[in-house]
From TrEMBL:
CDD domains: cupin_NimR-like_N. Keywords: Transcription, Transcription regulation. Signal peptide: none annotated. Residues 161-258 form the HTH araC/xylS-type domain. The keyword Transcription regulation applies. The keyword Transcription applies. This is AraC family transcriptional regulator. It comes from the Bacteria. It comes from Herminiimonas glaciei. PROSITE patterns: HTH_ARAC_FAMILY_2. Coiled coil: none annotated.
């Protein structure tokens, strides 16, 4: 039995059907599941609000109408924004050729509706019935979904953990690499090399990706573009929108309206 979010206990591994789905509604405040894992892979779908999934080595953001795929056997935790509406799709190992690593998937309306419909059906279904046929089509479509770059590499290195924690609490902190280095008695070059080696990104790109994760979470919670821009320390709303468009190809308004 696993506590998924809040006080919701559910054990998908007791079932051996190729896939089962479950709806989750949070109630007025942020909810978080403790670190856990299960045999089945899990697709976390955000219907409203946002979800952040943490796995070893990374944070994955799930904005509305996207999904994050977590392979079976991988430790993870989920944090949902207040009043989020979610749907979990649990997939039996070997039932579909889904990624062996975490991935954020852009889902079509058809995929979302099929998952929602599956969540309303009995989870104990025979292998030759209507539900099994629905699942077969769903999984064949799911493996075709493209990925989106909503992943923040994180490291077990103590210094980078401290920087990530500080920037999460104060995302408007615009300290340079040299200034961060001074705080930890490191040279600018040493810290820059450390970030690159641990995350595969330059410090500037890594911080922008963190900003993108935070922005998506806050926008999904209903915050205005103006407010998010200010919270992240941008000089103007237009500068924030430029960053957002460069990362995701659309303005914040267009990105969420297209979902």
């Amino acid at each position: 039995m696993v506590t998924l979010l809040g006080s919701i206990d559910y054990n998908a591994d007791r079932l051996f059907q190729p896939a089962v789905a479950l709806r989750i509604d949070t109630e007025g405040s942020e909810s978080e599941s403790p670190i856990h894992m299960h045999r089945k892979g899990q697709l976390v779908v955000a219907l409203h609000g946002g979800v952040t999934c943490e796995v070893p080595g990374g944070l994955w953001m799930v904005p509305p109408q996207c999904g994050v795929w977590i392979p079976g056997g991988m430790p993870h935790s989920n944090r949902a924004t207040a009043n989020a509406r979610l749907c979990f799709l649990f997939v039996e190992p070997g039932a579909a050729s889904l990624p062996s690593e975490c991935a954020t998937l852009a889902l079509t309306p058809l995929i979302r509706e099929m998952i929602l419909h599956l969540a309303d059906l009995p989870q104990h279904y025979p292998p030759d019935g209507h539900t099994a046929k629905l699942v077969e089509v769903l999984l064949s479509e799911l493996v075709m979904m493209p990925t989106e770059q909503l992943h923040l590499p994180v490291s077990d290195h103590a210094r980078l953990r401290q920087i990530a924690s500080a920037l999460t609490q104060h995302p408007d902190d615009r300290s340079t690499v040299a200034e961060w280095g001074e705080r930890f008695a490191m040279s600018e070059r040493t810290l820059a090399r450390l970030v690159l080696n641990e995350t595969g990104m330059t410090f500037g790109r890594w911080r922008r990706q963190l900003h993108l994760i935070i922005a998506l979470q806050r926008l999904a919670s209903g915050a205005s573009v103006q407010r998010v821009s200010e919270d992240l320390g941008y000089d103007s709303v237009s500068a924030f929108i430029t960053m957002f468009k460069k990362a995701l190809g659309k303005s914040p308004a267009r990105y969420f309206s297209d979902k």
